[in-house]
């Protein structure tokens, strides 16, 4: 069995930055609280909590004397106001790609435009974007929901369109094509981040070459689930959070297995999954085959 690891697998720039910042502060003995789990990876969150970080639902839950960490997803504008009212110190790890969308959201309202957001309305990043809007906002999850909004869109003078940074690239392309044809006044801003483009593209390419695809990452991680959807279009794909979840029987008979990972998956977990797979390869090999493989 040949295992091919995606070059882009694992932490993206924004997640890496937020995680390093939090470990650095904890290493300095500071008391820190994150607003929601820092990243969508339970193992990393548990480790941070074991080192003293608090995970709070909102600013009101942060104990006095703690420094707030704003995660890479960003937060609505009113959260900054709540932090300031409580007089808490804070560190802003909002990813610059997300911060750019916050700026676009605020500008749309100032220019009298409706803000149209492609994304999951329940995702914290989208809630943050909506919370920076200064005028009317509509959120749509896919082409069908966008099509349903068309009568309302045609009544608008001006429309600015943005996408959640981790939106599915293929779906975004079809939504853009629809708007360009049916609603020509919509001004479209391509805000899917580079990390998402690269990961989804690589998952697309790799899944076409493999009998199975293993997508490592949190079951609640939006970008991981999108990688899974992309991979599942071309081959049999599975999402695992840790090596324990990968059933060796699932790989039986596969000649080539592709491995990718969501943007919030640490390299240590990727290595564990890869190691568990190579143990499986060794189990499948005769001693002569193992020797030949080790000499190759
Ligand atoms: Fe930033 Fe994109 Fe990662 S928006 S947090 S680089 S997935």
Keyword list:
296 residues, alpha/beta, Cobalt-precorrin-4 Transmethylase, domain 1, Rossmann fold, 3 domains, four-stranded parallel sheet, 11 helices, 12 strands, 46% helix, 17% strand, binds FE3-S4 cluster, 4-hydroxy-3-methylbut-2-enyl diphosphate reductase
Q: Short summary of the structure?
A:
This protein has 296 residues and is an alpha/beta fold. The protein is 46% helix and 17% strand.
Describe the structure in your own words:
- A 4-stranded parallel sheet has the order 1-12-10-11, with helices on both faces.
- It is α/β, with parallel strands linked by helices and 296 residues long.
- It has 3 domains: 110 residues, 4-hydroxy-3-methylbut-2-enyl diphosphate reductase, catalytic domain (Cobalt-precorrin-4 Transmethylase, domain 1, 3-Layer(aba) Sandwich); 83 residues, Rossmann fold; 96 residues, Cobalt-precorrin-4 Transmethylase, domain 1 (3-Layer(aba) Sandwich).
- It starts with a strand and ends with a helix.
- Helix content is 46%, strand content 17%.
- It has 11 helices and 12 strands.
- Helix 8 packs parallel to helix 9.
- About 4% of the residues have low confidence.
- The structure holds FE3-S4 cluster.
- The site of FE3-S4 cluster (F3S) has 15 residues, from helix 1, helix 4 and helix 8.
